[in-house]
Design a protein that fits this description.
This protein is an alpha+beta fold. It contains nine helices and five strands. The longest helix is centred in the C-terminal third of the chain and has 23 residues.
Length: 211
């Protein structure tokens, strides 16, 4: 019994099994396609047949295009085969259909063997792109660090470091006379200015007395 967590693929595979059980092997692919369409209608599985998928080359759409056998639920690409076995080339065909359609899930179904053969294929390119987008949206602070702009936290650290540098190498190192205070709480540089002014006054007074 086929089991799948996705009820859509479960229903599609169930319909294919019903066709294979009724017809068996040996028919043309077109017979299995038409029979599967009847089963999908009976099981109320929405589908489109012979869906054209565009092919692009260097951002140009080619006149040649893919043609998917079925697209069910507007989200699952179905490719039908009636061969003695499936190959990697058949799987690659479905992957290309997924890329062209922009859909994530595909089913490759083969009616040509004694037991129904099927493979579930994922558009890994689409899933990887979605995962990358999620990571960027969940970590905006990481994306901001790739730019030249600094965060407020960086500015705070820079200002703190600058203040510390000014205390260690600022006015005190450039003008030691302003950082050294005498015992009376006065700056020696101020005392020097006061002494110079007093000497100038004495000289001025002396000149007046001599006159």
């Amino acid at each position: 019994m086929y089991a799948d967590k996705d009820p859509r693929t479960h229903a599609i595979i169930g319909a294919a099994m019903a066709v294979h059980s009724t017809l068996g092997t040996g028919f043309l692919e077109a017979v299995y396609q038409e029979s599967l369409a009847i089963e999908c209608n009976a099981k109320e599985i929405p589908f489109r047949r012979e869906v054209e998928l565009p092919i692009t080359y260097k951002n140009l759409t080619l006149q040649t295009h893919y043609r998917a056998d079925f697209i069910c639920y507007d989200s699952i690409v179905i490719e039908i085969k009636a061969l003695s076995g499936l190959t990697n080339a058949h799987q690659a065909q479905v992957i290309n259909y997924l890329k062209a359609s922009g859909l994530e899930l595909g089913l490759l179904i083969n009616f040509g063997t004694s037991r129904l053969e099927y493979k579930r294929l994922i558009n890994s390119h689409l899933r990887t792109s979605a995962s990358s987008a999620d990571q960027k949206s969940k970590s905006p602070q990481i994306a901001q660090m790739d730019t030249d702009e600094e965060t407020p936290h960086h500015n705070h650290l820079r200002k703190s470091a600058s203040s510390a540098d000014q205390k260690n190498t600022g006015v005190g190192s450039n003008s030691p006379q302003m950082s050294q205070m005498n015992a009376d709480g006065e700056n020696p540089y101020h005392n020097h200015l006061r002494t110079s002014a007093s000497s100038a006054d004495q000289e001025s007074n002396g000149s007046l007395s001599n006159d």
